[in-house]
From TrEMBL:
InterPro entries per the UniProt record, alphabetical: Cell_wall_hydrolase_SleB, SleB_dom1
Pfam families tied to this protein: Hydrolase_2 (PF07486)
Example GO molecular function: hydrolase activity
Domain of life: Bacteria
Keywords linked to the UniProt accession: Hydrolase, Signal
The Cell wall hydrolase SleB domain, residue ranges: 115-216
Organism: Sphingomonas ginsenosidivorax
Signal peptide: 1-29
Name recorded for this polypeptide: Cell wall hydrolase
Length: 217
């Protein structure tokens, strides 16, 4: 082969190779659109959820405060009724003997001091009440009245039947005044009484003389 022929052959081969390179298919790696690859975005739970994603709101359990019960209001104390006289205090009472103690006290007032001034009747009632409080006599009003050897009107440990009338109604009213301490006794703290013609036994202190009775302690 001549030099000219060899040069022509090399030129032809070069031209063919260039043609092949110009019409070759690119590799798959070159087809990737790298602009579609985005950097992952970290999502914080403190940020707002995207509009197209439903936001889950945690349920909140309501807290109910306990009801406050108002402190009970203390009832107002009953005002004590003031009287201008013992007679007014007695007149303000009704004549119903509501309980046994009242009946026993009214019976003693009736048998021991009916016909006496109201002050004397009240003093008799107060003697019986003072005895019940003293600790030296029975603590019950009826037991004081029916105690053996103390009041002559008692028969066999019982108070005789009383016929209802003005004197007994007054005795009931006086007994109520005494039990309610609605009027001060004219013979305070007296534990005994007697008629002037009878000398009391023991060393007693005279407190007052009212009507036909003298009161001692």
């Amino acid at each position: 082969m001549t030099i000219l022929q060899r040069a022509a052959t090399i030129a032809a081969m070069t031209f063919s190779l260039a043609g092949l390179l110009g019409h070759s298919t690119p590799g798959k790696a070159t087809e990737l659109d790298r602009t579609a690859i985005t950097t992952p975005v970290s999502v914080s739970y403190n940020t707002l959820a995207p509009a197209n994603v439903p936001q889950i709101v945690p349920a909140v359990t309501p807290v109910f405060e306990p009801a406050v019960t108002p402190a009970p209001i203390a009832p107002a104390e009953a005002e004590s009724e003031d009287f201008d006289s013992l007679a007014e205090a007695v007149a303000a009472q009704d004549s119903a003997a509501a309980n046994e103690s009242l009946q026993c006290l009214a019976g003693a007032v009736y048998f021991e001091s009916k016909g006496e001034p109201l002050a004397g009747q009240l003093a008799v009632a107060e003697v019986i009440i003072n005895r019940a409080k003293s600790g030296r006599f029975p603590a019950d009003v009826c037991d004081v009245v029916t105690q053996r050897g103390q009041f002559s009107f008692v028969r066999g440990g019982h108070i005789p039947t009383i016929t209802a009338g003005k004197a007994y109604r007054t005795a009931i009213a006086v007994a109520k005044v005494a039990l309610a301490s609605a009027w001060n006794s004219p013979a305070p703290k007296a534990l005994f009484f007697n008629t002037p013609n009878r000398s009391p036994g023991g060393r007693l202190t005279k407190i007052a003389a009212i009507g036909n009775h003298i009161f001692y302690r």
